[in-house]
Amino acid sequence: MLDIAVQITQVLLAVGAIGSVYRIYKGPSVLDRVISLDVMLIIVASMMIVEMVVNDHQDFIMFVVITAVIGFLGAVAIARYVVVRSPEEVAGETSEQDPYPGPPVAPAIPRAGSESEPEAPQDPVSTPRMPGLEVEEGEDESTSWFSALARSGFTPRRNEDQTKGPAPAPSAGPEADAEGAPGPSRQQEGRDD
Amino acid sequence: MIESLDADLILDAVASVLLVIGGLMSLAAGVGLVRLPDLHSRMHAATKPQVLGLLSLLLAAAITWRSWEWVAIVLLAWGLQLLTAPVSAHVVGRSGYRTKHMRRDLLTHDELASAVERISRDIPPSRG
Questions:
Q1: Which residue of B has its CA nearest to A164?
Q2: Helix (H, G, I), strand (E, B), or coil: what is residue B42?
Q3: pLDDT per residue over A93-119, tens digit each?
Q4: Chain A contact for B23 (CB, 8 A cutoff)
Q5: Which segments of chain A does DSSP mark as H helices, in order?
Q6: Domain residue spans in chain A?
Q7: What is the pTM of this model?
Q8: Which of A114, A176, B46, B50 could cysteine-pair with A35, CB 3.0–4.6 Å?
Q9: Which chain B residue lies closest to A57 (C-alpha atoms)?
């Protein structure tokens, strides 16, 4: 009975691994590939557990423990540096945000003084980018994501909370002035939670 | 531990069921990775069944080894997995939202959008 269960489990794990490999190959963004690699790592650990069940030994249990400990570090490290979106989504989003006043490039001009702070990259130009993704032009979001998301017309499609009105256009100028001057303290706590 | 034949049979049956459950959880993760349309839904499918699947596989292994010492190590491994799996899911989901790796037409309600707009509108006058 245990042999049949082991064979069934191996087949199921193999199908799961095939799905994970398909998503690693097909995945449109690097985040899809990262979570697929996490699934792949756990499936490998599961196959080692099944092998330990078959042969009745405990040699690989430390691999499982260490996988559980350090398996998330790859996802954390890569998700930290994902800044570029695919260009076709950028084209769809920028055509939708046209009715909003206040061009997105306008607040970037007084922000140029904050480029000297390496800890808080507020200008999208000064953000570090992955070298393989630099060919995708047209979208380079900084990690100061609140202001970046608010500027790019990402927010106003809400179902509720209509009382506050749309994002006001005249506040774009003083907003950019106030963000450039006083220092990166508040945006640090927004970023590093 | 337990030497009678019936107990062996029952323990093997329990271990077999747990093995198949673990395999089904991994299969669910793989199918969810293939079939789901969005980064965040794929993230849910990838990070949530794995914990239960790994728990059932580890318990099956500990049952077939017939020892309580390995149960402790198995539960240690599963506890560490339970601690670290939400971290990667949270970080991937946050990064996906910030870099807009998501399909907004699939959302019924974006609860974070109002918070983003409020903070981005309220903070700068308080600092200036």
A1: B118
A2: helix
A3: 444 443 344 444 444 444 444 444 444
A4: yes
A5: 2-26, 30-55, 61-70, 73-79, 87-96, 145-151, 172-180, 185-191
A6: 2-79, 119-152
A7: 0.64
A8: B46
A9: B65
